[in-house]
Amino acid sequence: MPTPTGCQFVPYLSIRDAGPAVAFYARVFGVEPSLRLDMPDGRVMHCEFRVGGGRFFVSEELPEHGGQASPAALGGTTVAVHLYVNDCDAVVRAMADAGATVLADQFWGERFARVRDPFGHEWGVATQLQEMTPAEIESSAAALFAKMAE
């Protein structure tokens, strides 16, 4: 299969009652949506955020229109959005201050935190601290597992 050129992965988050989520993401990322289309009843049909060189979309779960189930409907999420940022701690602090829950906080060549936003979506937030080879990462993981077994 040929590799697509100009390919860009864009997460599309389905959220029950997406209005508060739009406000949350605007606050956390410090940007207003570049596009927001609401349905006649006020529900968010489509909302687009542009953050750095990337973007992501948000909408209501809209099952009557074939929309994806939200984490609220599933009782959890099946995917995590992973972000590389210049300052992991600042982004995680902004998310926590806005109501997210920090689930894990660790590092292995990266400063990394796993966060669940108030709408059930999980985010991995990382800042690369050093470039590590696969062998160095495997060695670091082995040391961590050995310490966990003590």
From TrEMBL:
Domain VOC, residue spans: 6-128
Pfam families reported in the protein's UniProt record: Glyoxalase
Organism: Posidoniimonas corsicana
Protein name according to UniProt: Glyoxalase-like domain protein
Signal peptide: none
Taxonomic classification: Bacteria, Pseudomonadati, Planctomycetota, Planctomycetia, Pirellulales
CDD domains to which the protein is assigned, alphabetical: VOC_like (cd07246)
